[in-house]
Amino acid sequence: MAATLRLALPAADLTALRDRVRRLGEPRPAVYRMLDPHGRVIYVGKAKRLRQRLLSYFRASYPEDKAARILHATADLAWDYVPSEFAAHLTELRQIARWRPPFNWHMNRARRTLFVKVSGGAAPRLGVGGATGREDHRWYGPFTGVARVRDAVRALNDLLGLRDCAPAMPIVFAGQMDLFRPALQAACMRHEFGFCTGPCAGLVTEAEYRQRAETAIGFLEGRTIQPIDRTVREMQAAAAAAEFERAAKWRERFEQLEWLLAATHRARAAVEALTFVYRDPGTFGDDRAYIIRHGIVRASYPWPATPIEREAFRGEVRDELGRPAPVPGPLPFQHLDEILLLMAWFRRHPDAFRRTSRLESWR
């Protein structure tokens, strides 16, 4: 018997939905939500021109196109108009964080931007990944260039003897061994090569391992250059002993760590530079003022046009400046996507910088 292709029926009357979009949708910036038959948000999207964007869903081919698959699961549509394209980006991001729609979270996981992550727990790990993961990690970056970031983090791990095994690996520190249990062996060869202190086999104390992890954190935050100092000493010692091959290996590690130190400094400076008042021109003249600090939108208001409005806005800026400045250190996990959004926006729209002003100028 020949197999028949069974396609799911649409969750709603697509003709009626399309007619509603044609009658009510306007060609202006907006954020839209697609809902399932139970009223749950399954997808959040943004549009520079809402009417054209929504109508494009109805022209997509099912099941080949992602847009058609989303529409096929949609029972209803809702949307909110916003002043500008920038406002649409920001509102979409925050609504995704609020509703966690399955089509957004499961289909948009690819990240070009990388972070160095330091895990929590008794034996922290250094790793590299995108802006997804656990909130109890420390996040540093962002960086570009997968291979270079991974090589530099591996050099830092090897130099400090930090583990890079699976997070679920059992940890047994020295002094915690059972007297009646046979001695454990390290789970991988990195310990044999001198690249890991062996916290999985009771070969290092908890205090010593934590100190090594803190050195790595201090390096990523620009508070210490101890790892680089060691590479210089080892390189000089190998050169003095005429062991030029070993000296070359230490030089390679020195260059990797030097690059990582400079890259973390540039990343911190880039985030800190996103501190200003941004005047965003509205599509229909409804300009808005955004108070941005370290890459996070703290508040937004209609652009102050009258003396009374400007004085009120100055008060809001003074209140923001009166709050403690973000301390140097890891990036706030809950704002990673927003920081990336602002960095990308001002990189793609360099003219937008001409509409910024320093917070202090509003005192």
Task: Please report the total strand number as a whole number.
Answer: 10
Query: In order across it, which strands form the biggest sheet?
Result: 9-8-7-10
Gyration radius, rounded: 27 Å
User: Percent helix among the residues?
Assistant: 40-55%
Calculate the terminal CA-CA distance, rounded to whole Å.
Answer: 79 Å
Secondary-structure-based class equals alpha+beta
Principal-axis shape equals globular
What's the number of domains? 3
Largest sheet: 4 strands, antiparallel
Q: What's the helix count?
A: 11
Q: Oligomeric form of this entry?
A: single chain
Low-confidence stretches: 1-6
Mean pLDDT: 92
What can you see in these coordinates?
This protein folds into 3 domains: 14-107, GIY-YIG endonuclease (3-Layer(aba) Sandwich), CATH 3.40.1440.10; 114-271, no CATH class; 274-362, no CATH class. Helix content is 42%, strand content 15%. The protein has helices at residues 14-24, 50-59, 66-72, 85-99, 102-107, 146-160, 206-220, 226-240, 244-273, 307-322, 336-348, and strands at residues 30-35, 41-47, 76-81, 114-118, 126-129, 138-143, 276-280, 288-293, 296-302, 356-357. The strands form 3 sheets. Strands 9-8-7-10 form a 4-stranded antiparallel β-sheet, with helices on both faces. A 3-stranded antiparallel β-sheet has the order 2-1-3. Strand 4 (114-118) and strand 5 (126-129) form a beta hairpin.
